[in-house]
Fold:
Amino acid sequence: MTSSFHLLEEADKVHLNRKKIRKPVIEKMRRDRINHSIEQIRHILEKDIQNQRQHSKLEKADILEMAVQYLRQQKMRQNVVDTQNSQDQYYHGYYKCLKEAVGFLHSHGQEKILHHICRQQSQSLGEHSLGYPASSPQRSPCNPSEGHGVIWRPW
Structure:
C-alpha cells in the first residue's frame, strides 16, 4: 500500500513541475498574442496616428484608446445612417399605403381624404413631405396640381 502511495505522490510532483514549467510559457504566448494584435491595430490606424503624433512612440494604451475612439465614431455614423434609412422606409411605406387607399375612393372622396391627410401631414410630419422619397423626382399628392380642379391620381 505504501508503494502505491509513493507512486501517486511522485506522479503528483511530476504533474506540478510540468504545470510550473508550462505556466510561464503559456503566459508568454498570451502576451505575444496581445502585442501582435496591438501592433496590427497600430498599422490599421497609422494615418490617424501620424496626424496626432509626429515623432513620439505610442504606448500600447494610446493605441487601444485610439482604436476605441475610432470604433465609437464608426458606430455613431452607422446609427445615423440606420436612422435615416428607417425614416425613409417609413415615409415610403406611408405613401404606398396612401396611394393604395386613394385608389379605392371615388373622385369626391379622394379630394376630401387627400385634403384631410395633407392638412394632418403638415401639422405632424413637419419637414418630411408626404409622397415620394426625397430622391424621387415625382410630386407629392399633397402638392397642388397644375390645373385647378384636377385631382392627382396615383394610377
User: Anything to note?
Assistant: The radius of gyration is 34 Å. The mean pLDDT is 74.
